[in-house]
Amino acid sequence: MSISDVLSPFTAWKNLFRDPVTIKDPLNERPGAARYRGFHKNDMDKCIGCGTCETICQNGAIDMLPVDGIPAVQGDSGLRPRIDYGRCCWCALCVDVCMTGSLTMSNEYKWVESDPDLFRFTPGVDKKYWDNAELGYQRHDEKHLMPVAREEMPELHPEARLDSFVEIVHGYSIAQAKLEADRCVSCGLCIATCPAHMAIPDYIKAVRDGDYERGVQLLYATNPFSQVCGRVCTHRCEDSCAARHEGDPIAIRWLKRHIIDQVPQEKVIELIGKPAAPTGKKVAIIGAGPAGLTAAFDLARLGHAVTVYEAQAAGGGMTRYGIPEYRLPYDALDKDIAVITAMGVEIKYNHRVGTDIAMQQLEADYDAVVLAIGLHQGRSTRIPGSDHPQVRKAVDLLRQITAGETIDVPKSMVVIGGGNVAMDIARSMARLQMQHYGEIRVTLTALEDKAHFLADPVEIKESLEEQINILDSRGPQACVIDDNGKLLGLKTWKVLSIFDAERRFAPKYDPTDEQLHEGEMIVEAIGQMADVSLLGEALTEKLEWNRGRIQIDPNGRTSENWLWSAGDCVKGPDVINAVADGHRVATSIHRALTPQEATA
Amino acid sequence: MFELDRSQYPQKKADGTLDIDLTSGKYLKLWQGPQHPGITGNMAIELTVCGDEVVDATTHVGYLHRGFEKLMERRTFMQCFPIVCRICVPEPDFNEYCYAAAVEELAGLEIPELAHWIRTLILEMGRVNSYLMYLGGQAGAFGQGVIGQWTTYVRDLMLDRFEELTGARIYHMFIIPGGVRDNLPDGFAGRMEETLREIESVLADVDRVMFHNAVFKKRAVGVGVIDTAWLDSYGITGPNARAAGVAKDVRKDQPYLVYPELDFEAVTGKDSDIYTRADVRRRDLLLSLDLIRQILAKMPKTGAVMTKLPNVLHWKIPRGETYVRGECSRGEYGYYLVTDGSGYPRRVNVRGPSYTHSIALFERMVINANISDVAALLVSLHTYPPEIER
């Protein structure tokens, strides 16, 4: 200790002459830093109400609530996060985890109320002064709290598939499936979108857990066509997947296929369990397609005796006779059908109703009849020359290919149409051309421009890889035939617009832009319709119709109380809708056949 | 009374209890805390005094028990991230670092190099804050309130730097499993340099007014001596050990993050009293300022700050256990994490250095102390009750 120890503390007095360092509020504004985690903002244009913010909030500060003026639509639950600032700890995990990037934070931190209960608000809905604050915490791209890229699906190389009908998609390995399933946030937007309302997040969890038996049970609870839907479903679920907003949607379809691929068929039948005791009621189903067989499966599980009448030699309907083997191998379809027949469903193949057995007979012999005949008749463009024998319908050709009939493969051909069926026939015929002639000369002309193609983008990508010449915005005008009656090709004009102001189909063309696409064969793939000739005149007369389709009530029942109708022939347009329809009529029939207990 | 050798006083009975008669009128039971300006948080000391001499002391903790370790067993690995910082209020970043590093080790995640540098930077900034708070507290325990005002001022400047870097002032929630949440903002190094200079300028004042102060020396020199023989038996780490001449510093002994690339020596003292501990901390604070400068000069300027994470909503970590440690301003901070392959931690145990310093060691040190030194003694061990109780 020295004299300086006594004197030096007095140097503190120098601070008397300094300015204070405190900030006087509110005289001086003191804005939060640029990345300050202040009050929440939510961009209503982006938010889809997936609730992932609610899931991650460890304080339970976020509740998903319905909001006036925001309806639930496909891909949007209609719910919005309400934040309770009595619980929020400002960690911003909700911002980091937000699937759309809609939730952010402002750098504002002052909010005065007299009532503590008022510190609860729905950002973006309840207007606040910080709604337009530019600064504040945001997530940037690399901070995703989950992988955003889809696991790549192993596929047959384009070179290898040019002349082969072998299935293109190999399916995920277990490790890949786990990684893909890991990306799911279980928001359930997909369930609402799926026509059959499959328990998608639950079966994806089963993949994560490696519990495939549970997965199979979940699949069969809503869909007996898992092999089929796991391969060719139009997967609208993936269009509403929360993950698609800032990355790839979860490969829901491939995960479904992965589950069903992991469990042997005998085990699947065992897992579903035995049907209920017989009820003594008999149901006839016309058409062994997805709608008919789903109804058959449900009704058989409920104990009804089900007989399915199928005109073709094998079941599956359009999934067999419309979808090429490289997309849906027949043995996969056979497995689904085998599980359905294992439930006691009897399928009478090569039985065409109307020819081999009359509708009246079915009405007399069964307690209920389901009409699920699909759309097997191709529509024609009716342009000049379209009645030439080398102008064919896509559905007819596809059926012939499946049935193994010999087809006179043309060296060059033109397909009219831009939907999936057009792609199917173009790609099937290209394979046959490659097998016969070693080269592919298929031209596909579609009315739509590339941005509005009806076909699945993957179909278009793969078609291009397979050397299909795809031309967009081309309207068919005539099938050109020479003087000897030989088909030369298709004349098209450029399409200026397809729909008129009222969104009615009224294509407009530019006649100066004319092209001739050479082809020994022209295939029309512009749509299908139901062949209802089996009904017979009397029944056709009796039934109520709606724009050429049989009129049904919301449960699929026609105006005849013994007849239900389901699937493409009354509703379109894909497998999963047919499955949903099958469930709907099965429920309706079961209710009609089961004596109602008197209720007080 | 204090001229006598008090080391054998009070005498103990064979069973270890004190051989004193509390009803004799000679002794007084006195509670210091849990609300008391001389307590560095919510804890209480039950003192038995004889005159102004402490003859017995029992620490009472529990006023701050929030059950974090148990809470974490019911939260996913990512959900634990926002709550760990709350385990130690004045220097929360070690919780974030130790937790994140433990999770990353068990999950097998490699984090980007830039994230290592930013983590080190954050930890040193937190250490500066913690020491500034300590200096104010230590001076305040002897009645010198002005030091606390000055250090609070510069600590606030450092909080500004925290705010612009992490988006928050106290609970930064920035060192996230997988990396850190962001890179440095533009111009950060320049503003940090200004802050460091201001801190140095205030520390120069603190040196004159607190350390070269006859009163402070009278009160602090030779008081509260920690015997080097106690270090291992009481688990004494950090400045408390270094002030006793033992260079215990996890940054040197078991280097983590980017400390191997930084040039520094552990700061030590030799007298092991309150004054030496305060001085060691002051010099350690200056070291931290130097380390921050080194980090800002050496660190990469660009790069990824976070590694790719699995989906954190159902992140499962394989069965395993680990202990991750770091040198915080009070000594060794550690997280013992056990995982069982599920989506939740099976067990998290937090080692806050105040636990070993401020209960058993303090109860021993305070015997025979003057009652007016009790608060200063507790502060001199750099006690943060929230990390004792978790």
Features:
heterodimer; A: 600 residues; alpha/beta; Alpha-Beta Plaits; Fumarate Reductase Iron-sulfur Protein, Chain B, domain 2; FAD/NAD(P)-binding domain; 21 helices; 22 strands; 30% helix; B: 390 residues; alpha+beta; Cytochrome-c3 Hydrogenase, chain B; 3-stranded antiparallel beta sheet; 8 strands; 44% helix; 13% strand; oxidoreductase activity (chain A); iron (chain A)
Total number of distinct structural domains of chain A: 4
Gap between N and C termini of chain A: 100 Å
List low-pLDDT spans of chain B. none
Name the CATH superfamily assignment of one domain in chain B: Cytochrome-c3 Hydrogenase, chain B
Oligomeric category: heterodimer
**Total beta strand runs of chain B:** 8
Beta-strand fraction estimate of chain B: 5-15%
CATH homologous superfamily descriptor of the largest domain in chain A? FAD/NAD(P)-binding domain
CATH topology of the largest domain in chain A: FAD/NAD(P)-binding domain
Subcellular location (chain B): Cell membrane
Keywords (chain B): NAD, Quinone, Translocase, Transport
Membrane topology (chain B): Peripheral membrane protein
Pfam families (chain B): Complex1_49kDa
Describe this structure in words.
The complex is a heterodimer of chains A (600) and B (390). Chain A has 600 residues and is α/β, with parallel strands linked by helices. Chain A folds into four domains: 27-145, Alpha-Beta Plaits (2-Layer Sandwich), CATH 3.30.70.3270; 162-271, Alpha-helical ferredoxin (Fumarate Reductase Iron-sulfur Protein, Chain B, domain 2, Orthogonal Bundle); 278-375 and 539-593, FAD/NAD(P)-binding domain; 377-528, FAD/NAD(P)-binding domain (3-Layer(bba) Sandwich). A five-stranded parallel beta sheet of chain A has the order 8-7-6-9-22, with helices on both faces. In chain A, helix 18 links the parallel strand 12 and strand 13. The relative contact order of chain A is 0.09. The mean pLDDT of chain A is 90. By secondary structure, chain B is α+β, with helices and mostly antiparallel strands. Chain B has a domain at 68-224 and 250-351: Cytochrome-c3 Hydrogenase, chain B, CATH 1.10.645.10. Chain B is 44% helix and 13% strand. Chain B has 14 helices and eight strands. A three-stranded antiparallel beta sheet of chain B has the order 1-2-3. In chain B, helix 2 (77-84) packs antiparallel against helix 3 and helix 4 (113-141) runs antiparallel to helix 11 (274-298). The mean pLDDT of chain B is 89. The A-B interface holds A 1, 4-6, 8-9, 11-12, 21, 32-37, 52, 55-56, 58, 89-93, 96-97, 137, 140, 142-147, 182-186, 205, 208 and B 75-76, 78-83, 146, 153, 156, 160, 163-164, 166-168, 171, 173, 181-182, 185, 205, 208-210, 212-215, 217-218, 304-306, 308-314.
